Amino acid sequence: MGTINVTIWNEFKHERSQSPAGDLIRRHYPEGLHRTLAQNLAADDLVIRAVSLDEPEQGLPEEILQSTDVLVWWGHCAHAEVNDELVDRIQKRVLAGMGLVVLHSGHLSKIFRRLMGTVCRLRWREVGEKERLWVVSPSHPIAQGIPETFVIPHHEMYGEPFDIPQDGKIVFMSWYEGGNVFRSGVAFERDRGKIFYFSPGHETFPIYHDPVIIKIIGNAIRWAAPQEVVLDRITPQPQALEKILSENPLACLDTSSLHKANTEEKKA
User: Fold this and answer.
1) Which residues 6+ apart lie within 8 Å of 121 measured at CB?
2) CA–CA separation, 223 vs 198, rounded Å?
């Protein structure tokens, strides 16, 4: 495709906290994580919007959601504040083909858990230890141009077991200084939509200023971008592709009302 319409969503809570942690976060992200990501991801093929939870309709009114090719999601302490109706609309859009890139603690977001069908729990520890990431699927588009291994000097530990479905393609694995390991980059497909979960991005560290991290997120956006978004996902095919010779056992019944009910249910 040509240009990709990207919307970066952030709950935008930590950056405005009046606390020592908030002061530290503002040093790294003075205008918010979403705006830093937008600035660092800027490219000729990406049209990027940065929105947040406190904006009208929680940052994703219908006109923005419907014009988004890839939604990038960062959330942490305000998962419960996201309206279920918005989650429904995002889920419908993803299943129709919109890409979704879920970052860091977005693993517990309503939309990611909905699409995974699991609790998405994991182990965690916040002591600022070293994290080493390894590319385990070097042929995957998200891994293109990424070193085989690289280090984040200080990060929050996320560790196994990670409660996600087994159908995901593992692109990156992490090892932490304290000994834990973690599936830190996993790609999924749900109906027509592509989803990538990427764990680096704890708010108290300057993770989104790392050019390797930014390249991975950019690769994920381009991988997840749809060729098209198809809202009518179930299409009847009354005309058979081949000649049907079998006798219809329901030929003696009036099935028109049943067919009508089934068609209306599928459209809904």
Assistant:
1) 162, 163
2) 14
Residues in the chain: 268
Predicted TM-score (pTM) of the model is: 0.90
**Averaged pLDDT, 88-94:** 97
Provide the pLDDT for residue 75. Answer: 97
Question: What is the domain extent for residue 107?
Answer: 4-224
Strands 99-103 and 149-159: unpaired
Lowest mean pLDDT segment, chosen from 19-23, 85-89, 149-153, 186-190: 19-23
The pLDDT tens digits of the residues spanning 229-256 come to 777 656 677 788 898 888 888 777 765 6
**Which amino acid, one-letter code, is at 36?**
T
- Residue 189: phi, psi to the nearest 5? -130, 135
Q: How many whole angstroms separate alpha carbon 93 and alpha carbon 230?
A: 9
Residue at 237 is within a domain: no
DSSP per-residue string spanning 252-268: TS--HHHHHHHHHHHH-
**CA gap 25, 78 in Å, rounded:** 17
CATH of the domain at 66: 3.40.50.880
Residue 205 CA to residue 73 CA, distance in Å, equals 18
Alpha-carbon gap, residue 172 to 168, rounded angstroms: 12
Domain count, the chain: 1
Euclidean distance between the first and the last CA atom of the chain, given in angstroms as a whole number = 30
- Is residue 251 a part of any domain in this protein? no
217 bridge partner residues = none
Is 238 within a domain?
A: no
